[in-house]
Specification:
CATH class of the largest domain: Alpha Beta
Largest sheet: 5 strands, parallel
Mean pLDDT: 87
Shape: globular
Organism: Paenibacillus montanisoli
Structural class: alpha/beta
Number of strands: 11
Keywords: DNA-binding, Phosphoprotein, Transcription, Transcription regulation, Two-component regulatory system
Low-confidence stretches: none
Strand content: 15-25%
Radius of gyration: 18 Å
GO molecular function: phosphorelay response regulator activity; transcription cis-regulatory region binding
Number of helices: 8
Main location: cytoplasm
Protein name: DNA-binding response regulator
CATH topology of the largest domain: Rossmann fold
Distance between the termini: 23 Å
Order of helices and strands: EHEHEHEHEHEEEEHHHEE
Length: about 230
C-alpha cells in the first residue's frame, strides 16, 4: 500500500485529504508545519507528496526545492495561490502538478494515481536503473552512451546526449536555459544560452514523432524546458 505525505497546516483540509486517500486505497500521514514536512519528505518513506505553499516555519517553495534536490518523488502542489507566477515558480522548482483550492476530491485522487503510475513506469520496482533508462519509446544505454528510439539507434553528439540524459534523469522538472548551460557546458564555457535552444531543437528532431508539436521535450514559456513522463 503506497504512503502519501500531506504537508498542510489547515487541519480540516488535511484530514479531508487523508480520509479520501485512505478510502481510495492509500495510507497517508500529515505534517502541519513546513520544517516537520521537510524532514518527513526527506525520509524516503513516501511515494508522493501533496504540498501546500503557505506553511509555518518553511514555505512550500523551499520544501519543493530541497526535496527535488534529493529525490524524484512526485510532488503535487495544492494551493489557494492562483497567480500564474506562483504556478510557474512551483513548476520551476520541480513540482509535478499544481492543484488549486478549492478542489474536487475525485480529481485530487485521480491526479495522485496518474502521477504514481507515470513514476512507476519510470522507476520500475521503485529504484532508478543504473545502466539503462526507458521512457516512452526512448531507451538510453548509459554504459555505452547510446540512444534508441523505437529500438533503432539514433546518433547523438556528446552534448546532445548529455543534455538528453540530464533532462530524462530529472523528469517533469523545469530548467531555465541558464541552468542547463551551466550543468551541461560548465560555468566557464564560452558561448551564449542560444546554444541550449539549438540543442533542444536537435533533441526534438531525434526523439519526437512530430518535432513541431513536442510531447516529451516541452517548452514552459517564460521559464525553460522539461522532459515529460
Amino acid at each position: 500500500m503506497k504512503r502519501i505525505l500531506i504537508i498542510e497546516d489547515d487541519p480540516v483540509i488535511a484530514e479531508v485529504q487523508k480520509d479520501f486517500l485512505e478510502a481510495s486505497g492509500f495510507t497517508a500521514d500529515i505534517a502541519d508545519r513546513g520544517d516537520l514536512g521537510l524532514d518527513m519528505a526527506l525520509s524516503g518513506s513516501y511515494a508522493l507528496i501533496l504540498l501546500d505553499l503557505m506553511l509555518p516555519s518553511i514555505d512550500g517553495y523551499e520544501i519543493c526545492r530541497r526535496v527535488r534536490e534529493a529525490s524524484n518523488v512526485p510532488i503535487l502542489i495544492v494551493s489557494a495561490k492562483k497567480e500564474e507566477i506562483d504556478k510557474i515558480r512551483g513548476f520551476g522548482l520541480g513540482a509535478d502538478d499544481y492543484i488549486l483550492k478549492p478542489f474536487s476530491l475525485g480529481e485530487l485522487v485521480a491526479r495522485v494515481k496518474a502521477h504514481l503510475a507515470r513514476y512507476d513506469r519510470l522507476v520500475g520496482s521503485g529504484e532508478w536503473r543504473k545502466d539503462e533508462l526507458h521512457l516512452h519509446n526512448i531507451r538510453i544505454d548509459r554504459q555505452a552512451r547510446r540512444v534508441y528510439v523505437d529500438e533503432n539507434e539514433v546518433p547523438f553528439t556528446a552534448k546532445e546526449y548529455d543534455l538528453l540524459l540530464f533532462l530524462v534523469s530529472h523528469p517533469n522538472r523545469v530548467f531555465r536555459k541558464e541552468e542547463l548551460f551551466e550543468r551541461i557546458w560548465g560555468l566557464d564555457a564560452l558561448g551564449d544560452h542560444a546554444t541550449v535552444t539549438v540543442h533542444i531543437s536537435k533533441l526534438r528532431e531525434k526523439v519526437e514523432r512530430d518535432p513541431s508539436k513536442p510531447r516529451y521535450v516541452e517548452t514552459v514559456w517564460g521559464v525553460g524546458y522539461r522532459f515529460n513522463l
